[in-house]
Amino acid sequence: MSNPVPPPPASSAGGPDVVPVCPRHTDRVSYVRCQRCARPTCPECQRPAAVGVHCVDCVREAARTAPVARTAFGAPLRQGRPVVTLTLIGLCVASFVLQLVVGSAWTQTWIFSPAAGAFEPWRFLTAGFLHSTGMLLHIGFNMYALWLLGPLLEQALGRGRFLALYLLSTLGGTVMFTLLATDVVDFRTGVVGASGAVFGLFGALLPVLRRMRRDARGIVVLVAINGVLGFVVPGIAWEAHLGGFLVGLALGAAFAYAPRRLRGAVGVGAPVVALVVLVGAATVRYLGVYGTVPFL
């Protein structure tokens, strides 16, 4: 005597139940469902949640629509390594190694002097990635200062504004050296080092710390000490320090005190204005010396 086989259970819709499969991998059966969309999700598509699991599609959508955490200055709040700071340090160190390996040829190709910059304007920036090979303290101090100040400013201002601050402070240093060059000898004097950029970071840090209501007296003392050393120790281009500091101070103030609704515009506009002012100042100086601007 055979036993009757019971019919398959009915689904809520009245028809036979359908075996649940992952919508992304239709060949995989899954009885685990996403807590957000209730669709079946296979182990490969499951993501742990506070309660149960979510599917990858819901996780991606939540990440897309979630509000972006920002710093007090409007930059996206990023965790992890300071990419721009490490890249700048890497470029300076790599260039220093090439100075040692290749010799004076590498230095002479990229060093800045007002006379050389008149014909090869890229030297206004490239000199900031060279250092004196006869004094390890030169690159050591600059890279140490960049490592101390860079991550804080990069996180606070964001990568784009921090990079603009660094490069424009470098430019500010070489432009100021050009403006204060008094004779033919000064115009042919070579300048190397990231000190202009570092002093720009010092300058920017003052309004940033003030905006964050943090004590900036230590930075003021450090800038004052290094400023005096520029006049006491021979071979230091204090003009580059001054130019970098002023550019950094101006950009730092613009970034720190920009109204919330204008932060994006100021983040682009302030560097553009600074670039125009610096290029204009160098142009006027070259017109006064040569009667023309060779690089234009």
TrEMBL record:
Ranges of residues in domain Peptidase S54 rhomboid: 120-255
CC terms in the record's Gene Ontology section: membrane
Keyword tags: Hydrolase, Membrane, Protease, Transmembrane, Transmembrane helix
Family: Belongs to the peptidase S54 family.
Keyword Cell inner membrane recorded: no
A single BP term in Gene Ontology: proteolysis
Transmembrane intervals: 83-102, 122-150, 162-181, 187-206, 218-236, 242-258, 265-287
PANTHER family (UniProt xref): PRESENILIN-ASSOCIATED RHOMBOID-LIKE PROTEIN, MITOCHONDRIAL, RHOMBOID PROTEASE
Compartment list: Membrane
Annotated organism of origin: Actinotalea ferrariae CF5-4
Pfam families cross-referenced by the UniProt entry: Rhomboid (PF01694)
GO MF: serine-type endopeptidase activity
Topological type in the membrane: Multi-pass membrane protein
Presence of keyword Membrane: yes
Name of the protein described by the UniProt record: Protease
